[in-house]
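Question: does this match?
>
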Amino acid sequence: MYEHNDRTRQPERGAIAISDFVYAATGARLRRLTTPDGEHWFPAVDVCKHLGYAHTGSTLRNIVDPAYFSPAESVLLKHTLSIPAGREWRRDMNLVNLHGLIQLVNGSTKPESQPFKAWVSDVIVTIQRDGTYSLDPAPLQTTPGTSYVMPAQVADAIVRLEERNLRADEALAAAQAEHLVELRRANDERSKVSEQLGALTHQVTGLQHVLTRIADALDQIVDRVRPAPLPEPRAPLTPQHLLATWRDRNLVVTEDVHAVAAHLAPALVHGPVACRLEDVAARTGLTRDRVHDCVRMLIKRGCVRQSGSAADGVPVYSLP
């Protein structure tokens, strides 16, 4: 709320505090601009929003007397005031005075405005019947001037609005607390799932190692039980002839296997050869693991066999 008053002349105090009066009428605490002559102005967009009007401009034209609303710039220029600080206030925004606000309240269908409208009706009926309407003076006068008792209808409206706001705050707090509990429960569930996935990954990794060892053991068993082929008289074997034989029989099926076979063939034609995987990897440009796989493929295809091990444990391979 913004209230601009002339310091040299204080406006007269109302019989009912303007903030409580407007709160009882609209059900909301509205921004307010008070001019030096004591007149109160309110942003029309705020009033229309809280009273349930969809379009501010058409609402003002259809309901409010033109004398009771004006652009903020016109109101400020009339009293040589500057625009209030903050983005909420603009020179082109329409303001309504208290007359216009009451006209908007009377045209509203929101339940929050019904108690105030009922009080306004009582005031008009009382004036028609008795010719006057006045508030009762407060039993205790604590400030200069006369203080008045707030009308029961206005006081009841304020009490109901405050109770509604308290219930809304309590409902919001309960919803936020429930949302927080749900978030914590979801985080706990995610943590459990993450732990389970970690344990499962560890088990799968261990199973892969076991399967690899089983495959290596089976390869060794196959090598041991495979019968040796009968010797056949043949011409002296050359590396080129050996590679051509493997290629014709479709024993060397990939470039990597061919590269390893081409490295071993020149030595194999002369007898058993100790094969250090690191040396073959360095000469072929393959990784040690890939060289190991290629040697296993050559063994499976019957191109070579492991005939023993050297003194330093390096496998020795020979032709079948």
Remarks:
- The chain has three domains: 18-135, 165-227, 239-318.
- Confidence is low (pLDDT under 50) at residues 1-12.
- The radius of gyration is 48 Å.
- The longest strand covers residues 305-309.
